[in-house]
């Protein structure tokens, strides 16, 4: 639909965002945390892809993320172009406790840089930092406090216990922060370390992407021919396990911070 094109600085601008990364790094968990502020200790692998939406308010704009959460299992790799094509943003996820997952993330970044929209905003997210940190104050601040309101009850569920004791919270870490940061800087990516479990850093990903998105460019291409968008949000169920939690209008403050 082109209905948002005209007045979209007061309405929301739609931004297609894709999540990519190795299986089990936490892509779906990041989306669940962002969209519904929930965390599930034993989340099932995604089959194909899932589609969700969430609004993100900034001071001067409201974005409506159309999120394609892809399946990380190798057998689904060939489907990925379908989801990153026309995407304005991508979140490439790795697991800080699994070094090979960063290598996989790098191959996704290369693929995006070669084949996706040249203006795509890419964020690299090192997830599961709760496993390598004592559960204290978050260095990044506000995202944690925002998420801890309610759904973080799930955080306290038995299942995975943070490596919180002792003087070596970093014991499980296989990807040093500095190494990933240096790579991200060199490759021109936004960089975050996150925990879908505690909520740390999750909102930041989407807020920082929102700030970097070239809105005018999106509006122009939206006007030029939105019909070409393969996602078609209302019909998001077209893919496998699409769960549309488009109730964001009822939860104004849960989206990006503002
Ligand atoms: P695919 O759909 O197979 O590509 O996996 P995925 O990347 O979507 O991973 P998913 O979100 O399904 O999470 C995999 C497992 O890791 C689940 O058991 C999650 O509960 C767990 N998990 C996800 N994020 C975190 C996190 O931040 N911390 C911890 N401790 N566990 C997490
Ligand atoms: Mg998944």
Summarize the structure.
The chain is of the alpha/beta class. The protein is built from seven helices and six strands. The chain has a six-stranded mixed sheet, sandwiched between helices.
Structure description:
By secondary structure, the chain is α/β, with parallel strands linked by helices. The chain has one domain: Rossmann fold (3-Layer(aba) Sandwich), CATH 3.40.50. 28% of the residues lie in helices and 18% in strands. It contains 7 helices and 6 strands. A hairpin with a 4-residue loop joins strand 2 and strand 3. The longest helix is centred in the middle third of the chain and has 17 residues, at 99-115. Residues 1-9, 137-167 and 227-255 have low confidence and may be disordered. Bound molecules: guanosine-5'-triphosphate and magnesium ion. Magnesium ion is lined by residues 27-28, 45-46, 69.
The topology string of helices and strands comes to EHEEHEHEHHEHH
Please state the structural category: alpha/beta
The top-level CATH class is Alpha Beta
Widest sheet, order of strands: 2-3-1-4-5-6
CATH architecture: 3-Layer(aba) Sandwich
Helices and strands in order:
Elements: E1 12-21, H1 27-36, E2 49-57, E3 62-70, H2 80-84, E4 89-95, H3 99-115, E5 121-127, H4 142-147, H5 177-187, E6 190-193, H6 202-212, H7 215-225
Parallel strand pairs: 1-3, 1-4, 4-5, 5-6
Antiparallel strand pairs: 2-3
Guanosine-5'-triphosphate is lined by residues 21, 23-29, 40-43, 45-46, 71-73, 127-128, 130-131, 160, 195-197.
């Amino acid at each position: 639909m082109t209905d948002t094109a005209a007045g979209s600085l007061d309405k929301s601008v739609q931004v297609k965002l894709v999540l990519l990364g190795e299986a089990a790094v936490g892509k779906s968990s990041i989306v669940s945390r962002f969209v519904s502020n929930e965390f599930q200790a034993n989340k099932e692998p995604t089959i194909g892809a899932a589609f969700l939406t969430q609004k993100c308010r900034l001071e001067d704009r409201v974005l409506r993320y159309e999120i394609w959460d892809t399946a990380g299992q190798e057998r689904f790799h060939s489907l990925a172009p379908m989801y990153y094509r026309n995407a304005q943003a991508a979140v490439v996820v790795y697991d800080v406790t699994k070094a090979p997952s960063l290598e996989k993330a790098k191959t996704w970044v290369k693929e995006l840089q070669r084949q996706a929209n040249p203006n795509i905003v890419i964020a690299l997210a090192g997830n599961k930092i709760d496993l390598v940190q004592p559960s204290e104050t978050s260095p990044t601040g506000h995202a944690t406090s925002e998420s801890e309101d309610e759904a973080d009850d799930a955080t306290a569920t038995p299942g995975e216990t943070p490596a919180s004791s002792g003087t070596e919270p970093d014991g499980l870490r296989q990807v040093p922060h500095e190494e990933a940061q240096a790579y991200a800087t060199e490759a021109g990516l936004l960089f975050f370390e996150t925990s879908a479990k505690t909520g740390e850093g999750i909102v930041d990903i989407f807020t920082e992407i929102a700030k970097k998105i070239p809105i005018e460019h999106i509006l122009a291409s939206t006007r030029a021919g939105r019909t070409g968008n393969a996602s078609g949000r209302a019909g998001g169920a077209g893919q496998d396990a699409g769960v549309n939690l488009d109730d964001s209008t009822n939860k104004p403050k849960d989206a990006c911070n503002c």
